[in-house]
Amino acid sequence: MKTLFPIIVRGGGDLATGTIYQLHQAGFPVIVLETAHPSAIRRYVAFSEAVYEGRWTVEGVTAVLAADVREALTIAAEGDIPVLVDPECRVLEEIQPQVLIDAILAKKNLGTSVDMAETVIALGPGFQAGKDAHLVIETKRGHHLGRVLTEGEAAPNTGVPGVIAGYGKERVIHAPAAGTLRNVSNIGDLVENGQTIAMIGDTPVAATLTGVLRGLIRDGYPVTKGFKIADIDPRESEQKNCYTISDKARCIAGGVLTGILMCNRGSFVWKK
What we know:
The protein is an alpha/beta fold. The chain has helices at 14-25, 50-53, 69-77, 247-263; strands at 3-10, 30-34, 55-58, 61-65, 81-85, 95-102, 119-123, 128-129, 135-137, 148-149, 152-153, 172-174, 179-183, 190-191, 196-200, 203-206, 211-216, 222-223, 228-233. It folds into two domains: 3-157 and 248-263, 3-Layer(aba) Sandwich (Rossmann fold); 169-234, CATH 2.40.50.100. A nine-stranded mixed beta sheet has the order 3-4-5-2-1-6-7-9-10, with helices on both faces. α1 (14-25) packs across α4. It is globular, with a radius of gyration of 18 Å. The chain starts with a strand and ends in a 9-residue tail after the last helix. The model has no long low-confidence stretch (mean pLDDT 94).
């Protein structure tokens, strides 16, 4: 017999972490599924870092890497957030979730289907509400961010980051070459336009504007040319934001929580 469990979240990046954090704070036990080599840019505020570090704390909430489902259930019962390396979602062979959330944010469906749980919620483009998932949450910045969609799809990916202090695409840095990334700067550093923040082999990675290095992929990560590797916030006064969940992530989390309550009014049961 499968273990009944409230919520499974596919993905533990920074936007997913906003949802995971809010659900945990609202009292819902959550199991997070990740890949063996997560590539979060804003990794200081991503529970996926537990895959590398064994445990990772964001705003006072701790995620712990679990070796198997039994250990994951124990971690959840103790009040922390278990993280399993399970990109194929094989956990469903042993656990029956009431809610499954696809928070991979791959801009496409990587294998989530509407029959995986009583309620399936997907974040962002690549899913059709009522077909691939029961609900879809809008993730594009703007008036509809966090909106719960009961039909249709989220806005398509434009490839252009949201504008902050007048900067959009300049904020995000992509790998100029393929190879192993070696960090020169650290998340939270103030950097100047043109400054070398990392190296890929003999190729320098330059800051694209002056500001706070808000995100930088892990040192030693193998990247392909064009891979997203860093994020700069032009507002130097917002340095502290490197260590807290973003407004966007919190807004999306609010939409997820609303969607869960819409579909499961008072019906949650968890047998430890």
